[in-house]
Amino acid sequence: MEDKHMRRQIGVGVAATALLAAACTAGSTAQGPQPAPGPDERLTITVASQFTDRELDSFNRVLDGFRATHPNITVESRGSQDDDKITQAIRGGNPPDVAVSAETVNLGQFCSSGAWQDLGPYLERDRTDLSQIPQAVQDYTQYQGKRCAMPLLADVYGLYYNADLFAKAGISEPPRTTAELTDLAKRLTEWNPDGSIKVAGFLPVQASQANHPWNWAPHWGARWMDEQGRSVLGSDPAWAEMLRWQKELVDFYGWDKLVQFTAGLGQQYSADNAFQQGRIAMAIDGEYRTGFIEEQAPELNYGTAPFPVTRPELYGTGLTTGTIIGVPKGAANAGAAWELVKYLTTDTDALVELANGLNNVPTTREALHDPRLERSPQYQTFLDLFDGAKLVPSPASPNGSAYMKSTEDFMVKWQSGQVSDLGPALRELDAQIDAAKSMGG
């Protein structure tokens, strides 16, 4: 899914807030689960997704499998439908029957506003086994006990490293701790004759490449919220530890040199991606990067590993997020829509085919271990992370990704030297996040 979950979630998540607040007044939700259509009952359901081009083609091929087993149900697939477009349709009383979203952080809005229907009654009626889905994935598809979505493939984040640059520097193993990451970043960095950066061992710049607070936080064991949903960035010492680690590397390179270096890097999702071009020796990224490398830089000699951690017991931790799918409020054919949602999220054949087509991780353990799942040694790292017990999701919030945007904005100021007293500044950030959440909720 080309990291669309995190690549666009900040802007889309904030923009969708007002729309989702209005969505709770649109349509009506049927009491209890609607029955599946009988075999002689012919009807049409629409599926709205963000997929385009190759991804949409792969998705549509999987839909063909559902059509084959449900010949009485016509499925119309509409791509290029982001959360804003889907929410506008819900608000206008003309929702799709099935909605697919790459913006997992909007789940709290979908559930709390009622824009997506509660799937709990369907799961209970059909005795759907959720134990096949890792707990972290179950967590990011429900909000405050209400399951208004099911997972449709996942992303997992880990470390990518350039094996040739490692060999050139005499390094035989990837780092396991953040202290080792710092040391290797410095050893792997190459400088131009004028003192500018030629190759960065590790780029510490937030909001560049896949460097985002949500991708980093799990490896320090940093928590976003307490049990009451209050921001804890100022009280959890892991955040200050992570930011001071970042600042050490920023100061090693020099902020002005980093600004110059990042300005010359290729876009994250283009063929001239900095890691793929050998401009960065180590990087954090998702499993989908293996597909980009296979297509755009097949000669690149690289390895993957769990991202380094600040404490040994955290090793094997990784952020997980993913595509979610649900039934919008006011869907004309909710019973048939649920049959499709159930098929796409629990049928092993469907999940394996979709995972192979989109280069993402299937979200049931049976599909994860299916021999038909295509896997390279580099990709296997992410399957192992997903199969472990240390996956970490970002918590859902009633105002979506606003807390993430605020945190990243803060880290951008911190790395450039605009924040002097870290502790009080983080506590002030907590207050701002909680105030915005109260208004958004």
From TrEMBL:
CDD domains: PBP2_UgpB (cd14748)
Gene3D superfamilies in alphabetical order: Periplasmic binding protein-like II
Keyword terms, alphabetized: Signal, Transport
Record PROSITE patterns: PROKAR_LIPOPROTEIN
Top-rank taxon: Bacteria
UniProt xrefs under SUPFAM superfamilies: Periplasmic binding protein-like II
Compartment annotation: Cell envelope
InterPro entries, per the entry: Bact_solute-bd_prot1, SBP
Function comment: Part of a binding-protein-dependent transport system for a sugar.
Recorded family membership: Belongs to the bacterial solute-binding protein 1 family.
Identification of the protein by name: Probable sugar-binding periplasmic protein
Organism: Saccharopolyspora taberi
Phylogenetic classification of the source organism: Bacteria, Bacillati, Actinomycetota, Actinomycetes, Pseudonocardiales
